[in-house]
Amino acid sequence: MHGLGVFTKSHIAKGEIVIIWGGEIVSVQEFKQGMGLRYTNVGIGEDKYMVSLVEENRGIDDFMNHSCKPNLWLDDEVTLSAMIDIHADEELTFDYVMETVDENYVMQNPCYCNSENCRNIITGKDWMRTDVQARYLNHFSPFLNQRIIRGMK
């Protein structure tokens, strides 16, 4: 996916719903066995991915890039909304940490977002970082929010 991205043609107001993901629900094991396209998955539960099964089912959101300073975040498992006002021609970005199921995940390429809080190497354990939790609390996938809340008690 390197070199591709999703850009908006018009202004998007903070809080506006931008994308609702769709696809087939598979287990982590099924995904690891090849069910679902590699770059078209989102963690929606402790052992659940939502995936595109075939190339023809890919949507524009499948080309969305990671940023450590994104402009979109999760409202629930599948709904992305604007976390800030987004201007026309800006790239729509999402921090993969908000939905990563696999704690062994390491993003294939380093992050080059150059933000002040860039983590460079993006992993499936980044949700455990207190700075990341503070930034996105209540905007992780609900299963991750529950992990964080249980850990805070």
Oligomer kind = single chain
How many structural domains can be distinguished in the coordinates?
1
SSE sequence, one letter per element: EEEHEEEEEEHH
And the CATH topology? Beta-clip-like
Strand order of the largest sheet: 1-9-6
Percent strand: 15-25%
Structural class: alpha+beta
Biggest sheet architecture: 3 strands, mixed
Q: Give the low-confidence spans.
A: none
The beta-strand count equals 9
Under CATH at level 1, the class stands as: Mainly Beta
Tell me, briefly, the overall form.
Answer: globular
For this structure, what is the CATH homologous superfamily? SET domain
Cα-to-Cα separation, first versus last residue:
39 Å
Total helix count? 3
Structural description of this entry:
This protein has one domain: SET domain (Beta-clip-like), CATH 2.170.270. A hairpin with a 4-residue loop joins strand 7 and strand 8 (about 80). The chain has helices at about 30, 130-135, 140-150, and strands spanning about 5, 15-20, 25, 40-45, 50, 65, 70-75, 80, 90-95. The mean pLDDT is about 90. By secondary structure, it is an alpha+beta fold. The strands form three sheets. Strands 1-9-6 form a three-stranded mixed β-sheet, with no helix packed on it. It has a three-stranded antiparallel β-sheet with strand order 2-8-7, with no helix packed on it. It contains three helices and nine strands. The chain is globular, with a radius of gyration of 15 Å.
